Amino acid sequence: MEKSYCIVTYGCQMNVHESEKIAGILRAKGYTREAREEEADIIVFNTCCIRENAENHAYGNIGALKKMKKARPSLLIAVGGCMTQQDGAAEKLKKKFPFVDIVFGTHNLEELGRLIDLKEGRKKAVVEIVPGKERVEGEDKDISFRTSYPNAWVNIMYGCNNFCSYCIVPYVRGRERSRRPENILAEANALLDEGYKEITLLGQNVNSYGNDAGGVFTFPQLLDKICKRKEKFRLRFMTSNPKDFGEELIRAVAENEQVCNLIHLPVQAGSDRILKLMNRKYTAEEYLKKVELLRKAVPGCCLTTDLMVGFPTETEEDFQDTLRLVKEAGFSTAFTFVYSPRAGTAAAAMEGQIPDEVKKDRIMRLVEAVNSGTRELSSAYLGKTVEILCEDFDEKKKLYLGRDEYGRMGYFQSEENHIGEFVRLKIEEAAGISLQGSLVK
Ligand code: 5AD
Ligand code: SF4
Question: What is the mean pLDDT of residues 130-141?
Fold first, then answer.
C-alpha cells in the first residue's frame, strides 16, 4: 500500500526549503502521498529555535502526538532541524517525549533515509546529531521535492560566521559554507527550464557568499550570471547583512532587470550602543547611508527589515532611536520581534535583561509605528496598475493571489487559472500589506 507523510515546518524560508528536501528523501523511500498528521505513516517535525516561542510551539505539537502514537504504534515520528541541533537538546527531547522514533539535526538532514532504515525493527529511538561540517558536499545537490510552483528556493550557502550576540543560528547551523557557483547555476537554470518564474536565493548572509572559497566568485557575480537568461522571471535573495551590503550588490540589483527591487536588510535596532552590544558592526548612520545609496541607484526600491525590542540594557532612549530610524528609513514593512534569550549566546549571559512588561509595551508601540508607515505606502497604490506573479488560489476568498516585485500581495477574481502567469491588476483596495484589484487585459 502507498505510504504517506506529513512534514510540519517551523521557522524561516531556509527551513521551508529544507522541508522540500525532506519531502524528496521521503519520496525516494516510498512515502509518496502527502497526508494530514492523523493519516500519515511518518510525521517529520522540522524545527526552529530562533526564539523561545518557536520552540514552545514545536514542543506543544510533538507532545500532542503521544495519544496518536499509542493508538497507532506503527506511526513513525521524526524530529529534526535547528532545535535538536542545540547542545543537549536531543537528550532533553528524548526524555520528554520517549515516543519519538528518530532525532536528527541540521547537519545530517540528507541522512534521514538511512535513519528511517535503522529504526526498522528496532525498539530504541535512533538519535543522531553530528557536529558542523567543513564543506558543502552532501548539501550541494538538489534533492528537493518542490510544491511551490511558480516560486522556487535555491540555497546558495549554509551557516553563519557573524555571531550576533543574541543569535543562536551560528551554533545550530555551523560555519559558512558556500555552494559551488556552477551547481547553483545548474539548479537555477534547470528550474527556469521547467518554467519556474521566481527564484529566491537563500543564505544567512548572502553578501559573504564565496568568502569561504577564497572570494573568487562573489554574490553580485552570481546574480549577473543567473540574469544572463533572456526569458521573463524574478530573482530575489535573502538575507543581507548591512555590514557587508555594498556598492557592487547595489550595482547588480540596479543593472539586472530580473532582480527584484526589494531588499530585506535587517537593522535590528536604531541605537548605536545597542547595535554594538549586539555585535552588528555598523552604526545607525552607516545603515542609513547605505539605504540612501540604494535608493539613489535603484529608484523606487522597497526596503524591508527585521527589528528587535528588549535587548539587554535597552533603555527608553535606545528604543526611541529605533522608532526614529523606522521613520527615517521608510521601510515598506518590517518583521518585529521581542528579544528572547537563547542559551549559549553572549546576550543571554548579559546583565540588564528587560522585564516582560517593558518588552510588551515597546513591541506594541513599534508595531504601530511600522504599520502606520505600511498603511501610508499602501494607500499610494490605489488606482495604480501593478504587475503580479500569480502564485495561488485562495479557496476561502475564492480569489487568485500573487505578489508584485515589491512583495505586496495582490488578490483578484478570475474564471481562468492564472497560476504561474504575470498579470496586471488595477488596484481598487489597499489595506495593510495586501491589495485587491481587477485584471487588466
Ligand atoms: N530574540 C528575538 N529575535 C531574534 N532574532 C534572532 N535572534 C533573536 C532572538 N534571540 C530575529 C532577528 C533576525 C530574525 C530572523 O530573528 O531580528 O533578523
Ligand atoms: Fe531558520 Fe534560524 Fe529558525 Fe534555524 S533557528 S529555522 S536558521 S530562523
Answer: 72
Task: Quick: pLDDT tens for 156-190.
Answer: 999 999 999 999 999 999 999 999 999 999 999 99
Look up residue 111 and give its three cell numbers. Answer: 541522512
Q: What is the DSSP string of 326-362?
A: HHHHT-SEEEEEE----TTSTGGG-S-PPPHHHHHHH
Would you call 212 exposed, middle or buried from its count of C-beta atoms within 10 A (0-12, 13-18, 19+)?
A: middle
pLDDT at position 133, please? 72
Instruction: Name beta bridge partners: 234.
Output: 198
Band (pLDDT 50/70/90 cuts) for residue 34 is very high
Pocket of ligand 1 (CB under 6 A): 50-51, 166-167, 266, 268, 306, 308, 337, 339-340, 342
Instruction: Write down the pLDDT at residue 377.
Output: 85
Architecture of domain 3-128: 3-Layer(aba) Sandwich (3.40)
Domain spanning 385-440, CATH architecture: Beta Barrel (2.40)
User: Which amino acid would we find at residue 5?
Assistant: Y
Residue 192 CB partners (closer than 8 Å, separation 6+)? 199, 229, 231, 233
Q: Where are the domains of the chain?
A: 3-128, 385-440
Choose which residue among 173, 176, 345 to substitute to test ligand 2 binding: the one with the highest number of ligand atoms within 8 A of its C-beta: 173
Question: What's the rounded mean pLDDT across residues 406-426?
Answer: 96
